Amino acid sequence: MKKFILYVLITLPATLWLGSCSEDALNSESTIKETPRVENEFDRWLFKNYVIPYNIQVMYRMEDIESDMSYNLVPAEYDKSVQIAKLVRFAGLEAFDEVTGSQDFIHDNFPKSFLFIGSGAVRNNGSEILGAAEGGEKMIFYRVNFFDQQNNDVVGLVFHEFGHILDARKPRPKDFDEVSGSGYVGDVYDTHYTSREAALRAGFLTPYAAHSAAEDFTITFGEYFYHTSAEWEALLTTAGADGRAIIMSKFEIVYAYMRDEWNLDLDELRTVSLRRKDEAKNLDLTILD
Ligand SMILES: [Zn+2]
Q: Each residue of 61-77: pLDDT tens digit?
C-alpha cells in the first residue's frame, strides 16, 4: 500500500493548526540508502530509546532522503532532531505506554520509521506540508529546523497521523461516515468553511474535518483527547445545538471504537497526554540521557 496522508500548514501558527491532509502523490520510492556512517551519541540514544523498545528507525540525515523527492528539502539540524525525538518519545509514545501498561502497543502498531526533514514542503497551492504518514510504515516530519519547545504541535501531528493508522488497521465503523454523509466537501473545505465557527455549526470540529470521513475521524479522535474537557465543551458550545448533536454522534462512535477495537480509554489517554504535554514544556530536550 503506497498512500500518503499529508498534513498541511497554511498560514496558521503551529499551535493553532486546524489540520489539513490530502493524498497527494509524492515520490513513493524507498528513501533509505545503504551508506556507511559514523555512529554518534544521538544514534546510540536512538538505538536505546526507539529501536530497542519500539523497533522504530529515526532517519534524520540528508542521505536518508532520496535526492529526487518532489520538493526542495533542507536537511534536519542535529540539535533540533534530538529535541523532537525526545519530545515525541516523552509526550507521544510514552503516553500510550502509560495508558496501555506496556510498550507493545506502540511497538506493534506504530510506523517503523520516522523521517526528519528541516524545511517544509511547499505545495503548488502555496500550502505547506507539516507531516505525512506513508502506508502506516513511515511518518515524515517536516519543518524540524523551526521547532520551538514552547510553541509547537509536533505531538498533535503524531496523534493525528496515528489516528489514520489505527483506522487503516481496523477500519472505522461505517456508521461514522453516515452521520455527516453528503456533508464532506473534499479539497474545497477551506473555501466552504472559512472559519472554525462555521465548521463547528455544521458539525465539524475544524474546517478540515469536512474534507472527508477519514479526516473527520482522526480529528475527532485527536481533538477530544488532546484538549481539556473545558476546551472541548467550549467547542461544542460554539457549535450550537445542531452542531453539537452531530459532533457528539460521531464522537460516541470514535469513543466506542477506540475502547472496543484497541482497548483505549480516551478519557484516560486525555489525562495522561495532557499531563505529559504540560511536563514536556519544562523538559530539557537537549540532554541525551
Ligand atoms: Zn489527516
A: 977 665 445 567 889 99
Q: Would you list the domain boundaries of the chain? A: 4-280
| Domain 4-280 in this protein, CATH class | alpha beta
Q: Would you state the cell numbers that stand for residue 207, as one nine-digit string?
A: 474546517
Query: What is the distance in A from the centroid of ligand 1 to the CA of 132?
Result: 8
The amino acid at residue 56 is: I
Number of Cβ atoms within 10 Å of the Cβ of 221: 26
Q: What pLDDT, on the 0 to 100 scale, is given for residue 78?
A: 96
Residue 188 Cα to ligand 1 midpoint, Å, equals 15
Cβ 288 vs Cβ 41: under 8 Å: yes
CA of 14 to the centre of ligand 1 (A): 15
Q: How far is the CA of 104 from the centre of ligand 1 (A)?
A: 24
The β-bridge partners of 131 are 7, 141
- State whether residue 121 is helix, strand or coil: strand
pLDDT digits (tens, 9 = 90+) for 250-269: 999 999 999 999 999 999 99
Whether residue 180 contacts residue 187, with contact meaning beta carbons closer than 8 Å, is answered with no
The residues near 265 (Cβ < 8 Å, ≥ 6 apart) are 99, 258, 259
All residue ranges of the chain with pLDDT < 50 are 1-20, 22-30, 67-68
Q: How far is the CA of 115 from the centre of ligand 1 (A)?
A: 17
Q: How far is the CA of 41 from the centre of ligand 1 (A)?
A: 33
Instruction: Give how far Cα 56 sits from Cα of 49, 63, 203, Å.
Output: 9, 18, 37
Closest CA to 123 of 213, 25, 214, 191: 25
CA of 52 to the centre of ligand 1 (A): 28
How many whole angstroms from 107 Cα to the centroid of ligand 1?
Answer: 22
pLDDT at 183: 96
Question: For residue 10, how far is its CA from the centre of ligand 1 (angstroms)?
Answer: 14
Backbone φ and ψ of 130, nearest 5°: -95, -35
